[in-house]
Write a structure and sequence with these properties.
Length: 379
């Protein structure tokens, strides 16, 4: 099992609320549906409470009065739809497989209720607020659902066609004025959606750029630039995390033999290259991504091996020696070999020991390995 490095936790604190575009759309829906519910609740309550709120008198309606209870009933249907929108806006519902279908059904229901009402308001009762009501409903839906075309169309298309038909009905046919008004409104709907989608895309692009930057900074903060291994800070976080999670692990602390002589003989830049080569050998000797290779400081490295037994750890130590032998980086001033070698101290985590104590145990083993001749390991 991999020890998730603690900086992963840090990432989750600042983590995006969405992992991909689909998730972002879901997040936007969770915010937009209650807004839509609010708009529909407001308008349906205004119609239902017309006597109290606006001092409206049904007696002024001269024709088709039998439709009054039908409209009241439709407003109750809208209120039921409002409740369904609120329920659907719950994140669990949004992530459910049938969410889109459910949402489409509710939006079609709302649109049907408003379409019929708008037709009656305009064509039979000649109410002055009928046209602004339809336009406001259409625009608020564009604002709420512009990023979700199929849901948007479910509401917009029936209401748009019905309102347009009502205009044709009262004007007894099509004429230039109707075409101008509805053409203008349609253009406004399309333009506002295009504008909002553009902002949405720009926000998504900027968000991705920021995430990339955050991850680059995170890498820089946790990686050693010379050897491309984890730095000391990342190592300490990693060990603390493993200890806290009580994940058993072994560590190998290793040191390049006679590295001062290497520097003195080949120069500091060659020493840098040598360290990068040693790091490559270490990386190829471990399992990835489970094991962590870190530069502890100078020419010292630490390898963390989760769930590794003593036998596993010694096998890794052996592989490190093999990899270095294969690389055979010349080191003519070494007293133990003609190529670059390392000495290693091995230790395993024990209950009750903190990260520093475990490193100290491995360091003591490394000291013993050095004392007993270098180019070897001690447990
Ligand atoms: N080129 C290079 N040298 C480094 C770097 N960090 C530390 N060193 C050198 O590593 C050498 C470490 O020397 P010592 O601690 O005496 O160890 P050693 O010579 O390897 O001796 P033993 O460990 O006893 O075998 C020093 O000369 C440091 O200057 C680095 O980033 N690049």
């Amino acid at each position: 099992m991999k020890i998730s490095p603690p900086h992963d936790n840090r990432v989750s604190e600042t983590a995006p609320q969405w992992l991909n575009r689909h998730d972002m759309v879901n997040h936007a829906l969770a915010r937009a549906l209650p807004f839509l519910a609010c708009v529909h609740a407001t308008f349906s309550l205004m119609v239902l409470l017309r006597f109290r709120l606006m001092g409206y008198d049904d007696a002024t309606i001269l024709t088709a009065r039998e439709l009054i209870p039908v409209i009241d009933m439709l407003m109750c249907v809208v209120l039921a739809g409002v409740v369904m929108l609120v329920v659907l806006s719950h994140r669990k519902m949004i992530c459910s497989p049938h969410f889109r279908i459910r949402c489409q059904v509710v939006l079609l229901l709302l649109s049907a209720a408003w379409s019929f009402s708008a037709f009656v308001f305009t064509a039979f009762w000649h109410l002055p607020f009928a046209f602004p009501l339809s336009v406001t409903l259409l625009l608020s839906t564009v604002v709420a659902l512009y990023f979700h075309l199929s849901l948007l169309l479910c509401f917009v298309l029936p209401l748009w066609f019905m309102s347009f038909s009502a205009s044709l009905y009262i004007n007894q046919g099509i004429n230039a004025r109707i075409l101008l008004i509805w053409g203008g409104c349609t253009l406004i709907f399309i333009y506002s959606r295009w504008l909002l989608v553009r902002w949405f895309n720009e926000a998504w692009q900027r968000y991705n750029e920021n995430q990339l930057l955050v991850s680059r900074l995170d890498t820089m903060a946790h990686q050693d630039a010379l050897t491309q291994t984890a730095n000391r800070r990342a190592l300490e976080d990693h060990l603390q995390h493993a200890v806290a999670q009580q994940i058993p692990f072994s560590i190998i602390i290793l040191d390049v033999d006679y590295f001062k002589r290497y520097n003195d003989n080949y120069g500091h830049q060659a020493g840098d290259k040598c360290l990068a080569n040693v790091a490559d050998a270490l990386k190829s000797a471990v399992r990835t991504p489970e094991d962590l290779v870190a530069r502890y400081g100078g020419e010292e490295f630490v390898i963390v091996l989760p769930h590794a037994s003593q036998q596993d750890t010694e096998r890794v130590a052996q592989r490190i020696q093999q990899c270095l032998a294969e690389k055979a980086l010349p080191h003519e001033k070494s007293e133990v070999s003609g190529w670059v070698t390392v000495s290693m101290g091995l230790a395993n985590s024990e209950n009750g020991k903190n990260a520093n104590e475990i490193i100290a145990t491995a360091d003591a083993a490394l000291y013993r390995a050095k004392q007993s001749g270098r180019n070897r390991w001690a447990y």
